Queue: 4 jobs
Job 1
Amino acid sequence: MKKYASLAAAGLLVLVSSAVTLIHAARNRSGPPTAVITLSSDELVFTRDTDDSGILLQLQISHLYHDPYAPAWLPPAGIAALGFDTSIHPDDTRALDHYRRQCARRAFVAFEVGGPAYQRALAAVDEPRRQGITANRSRLFPVDASLNAQQLHARYAGRAGVLILPAVVRVLPETSWSATATRAARPARLNLAVIEVPSQIHVPLPFSQSFRVLPVTARPENSPQPLYHVTLRYGRFYEPQITAVSVP
C-alpha cells in the first residue's frame, strides 16, 4: 500500500510541476511583449543538449564593449544610479580595492544590435585588434542600464533592434594611459562589466528541425553570411519564445 501511495504522490508531483510550468509560460506570453527581435547565428550560438536530444541556442553579447580602446558604454552617473559607490576616482591608488570590494548588482540592461554605440566602439579599435574581434562576432552591444525596467522601456519605446534583459553587473576601474605612436591618451575611467544575462534558449519543434539539418554549426571565418536568423518574442518575465527561424 505504501508503495502505491508513494507512486501516486510522485505522479501528483509531476502533474503539479507540469501545471505550474504551463501556467508560468502562459503568463509570460500574456500581454504585450517586452521585445520582439531578430538575431543571427552570431548572437545565438547553436549547441546540443548533453544527451543530444534537444537543440539549444546560447545568447552571446559582444566582447567589444569592454575592449580598453572602446569608449565606456555607461557614464559614471549611470553607474552610480545602479547603487555603486563611485566616490573614489579610478586613478586613485585606493580605487582597485575600493571597487573590488563592491559586490555585483542586479540591474536591467538595454542591448542594441549593431547600432551607433557598437559602430563607435568598433571605429575606436585599431585594425589589428579589430581583426581579433571576429572570434566573437556578436553585435549585441550594451547601451544603457537601470534598476527600473520600465524606465528603460520608456527610453527605448518604438526603437527597433533593442533588447532589455535582467543582468548582473559589476563596476571596474580602468587607469589612464599616456599617448604613444600607436594609441591616443586615455583618461582613467569607470566601466561596467555585464557578467550574467539569461542566455540559454531551448528550440522546440518544429523549429528545431531547421537546426538538425544544418551542415555546420558555426559560421566559417571567411563566410560573409550568418548561418540562420531567429526571431524571439520576450514575454513579461523576459523569457524568450521563438516565433520564426530563417535559414538561407
Note: Residues 61-198 form one domain.
Job 2
Amino acid sequence: MRLFVALDFPDSIRDAIRDLIAKLKPLCKDARWVRPEGMHVTLKFIGHVDTEKLDPIITALAGVHSSAPVDMRFRGVGFFPTERRPRVFWCGIEASPNLGELAAGIEHALVPLGIEAEKREFRPHLTFARFESPKGTARLLEAAKEFQSLDLGTTRETEFHLYESVLHRSGAEYTKRKSFTFVKGAT
C-alpha cells in the first residue's frame, strides 16, 4: 500500500482554489492539473509499505502531539524549482511555527520503523499543476504574477490523517485510513 500523512482543509478554501484553477487552466493545456477535492497539505510521504506495517505506523503516529493547533493561510502562487524551469505550480502556505514541528515529529516517529526521513527541507504548499516540460507555460507564468499575494483563506487544524493513495489512469484516489488529534483536549 502507498501511504502519506497530511492535513486537510475546509471546502471554502477548495472552492476558492477551484475558481482560480478554472481561470488559469485554459492558459496552460499541457499542464496536469490537480483536482481540488484531492488536495491536502502533505506532512510526510511514506511511500509503498507492506500491509503488516500499517498497525505499527498507526501506533507511531498516535504518539505525535503539538501544544497548539496549526494555523494556515493559503496565499500566493509560485513554481518549483524555478519559473525558468517550472515543474510544479503551487500555492504557498503561511503557517504557525508548529506546522514544521509537527512534520518533524511525524518524521521522528516513523524513522524507527525503517521509514527514511525526508532529506529536503519541509516547505508546505499545495500543488496546483505539474509540467513535463516548460512547453506552453508562458501564458500561465505571466498570469501568475497577478496572483502573487492572492489570499485563498485560512484554517486552524487539530487533526492530521494517514491516507492511502491508489494510482489510476484518471489520477490518484485517496482513502483516509486513520485520523489523529494532535492537540491534547481538542475535539
Note: Strands lie at 2-7, 32-33, 41-48, 70-81, 86-95, 125-130, 151-157, 159-168, 171-181.
Job 3
Amino acid sequence: MKKELEDKLFKKYKKLFPNGSNVDPRENLMCFGFSHGDGWYKIVDEFLKKATKILNEKYEIDIIQIKEKFGSLRIYYDVIDCTEEVILMLRKLVMEAENKSFITCEVCGEAGETRNDTGWASTLCNKHRKPTEEWNG
C-alpha cells in the first residue's frame, strides 16, 4: 500500500497502532506496513473502524500484521485484554474483511475475482489482470 495511505491509517487508528510502524520486527510485523495493494484500503479501514468500536476503551489487541496471502487479505493480531465475547466479534470482523477481499480488486478496489491463472493467486478485476500465455498451470 502507498505510504500516504498507510500513514493515514496509522494516524486515524492511533489506539490500534500507538507506535505506527515504529515497532520491533521481532515482535510485530507492522514495521513493514500494510503488505497489500491500495484497492483493499477501504476494507482495512472499515475493519479497523469496527474493531476500534468493539474494543472501546476497555479492551486491547496488538495487530501483528495485515497482508495479502493466497489472493486474499490476512489480519493477524494478539489479544492483550478482551472478553470471549469481544474475541468472537473480532474473529467475525476478520472473516468479513477477508471475505470481502476475495471479491475486491487488490489494485483498484473495484469488483474482482480470485484466480490462479498466472501461477500466483491474486484477486483482480479484468482491467488489472494480466494473463500470461506462457503459464501452463
Note: The chain has a mean pLDDT of 93.
Job 4
Amino acid sequence: MIKVIRTGFLIFYKNRFKCSFGKEGFTKKKREGDLKTPIGYFKIIKCYYRSDRIKKLTTKLRLIKISKKMGWCDDPLSPKYNKLVQLPSKYRYEKLFKKDHTYDIILVLNYNTNPVTKNKGSAIFIHIAREKYLPTKGCIALNKSDLIELMSKINHKTIIKI
C-alpha cells in the first residue's frame, strides 16, 4: 500500500518520497476546482506517458502513449466529465500533452470514476511535481526520478491511501 501523508511524503514500504498535493490541503468532500486532494483509498486505473520525453519505464502497469489530441474533461456539463477526451472539445478540459513536464507521466486514480458524479472532482492523478514541489490543484506530485522508481515497484493492485 502507498500512503500519502499530510507532511508531504508518499510512503511505499521502506521508500519515502517527497511529494506535493492540493494547494488547499485534503478533504473527504472533494468538489470540482476546490484545489484539495481527496482522502480515501484508490487504485491506479490508467498510466499515460510522453514517449517523446520518457524513453524507458520499467513497470507492471499498462502504458498508454499521450498524443497531442488527448485531454481530460473537467467540465461538469459534459457527458465525458472526468474522462479522457479527444481534442478539440467543446467542453472544458486539461491538455495531457503539455509544454511543461508535469504530465510526462500520469497515473490516473479511480477517484470519482464508477460512477462519475458531476462536480465531485476530476483528473485526480499522480504526476511529476513542479519546481520546488509547488502545490497541485488536487493531485499528488513526485519528482520524475521518484515517480519512475515508484512505478517500477507497483502494479494495478497497489492501493493508494490518501
Note: Residues 19 and 149 are 14 Å apart (CA to CA).
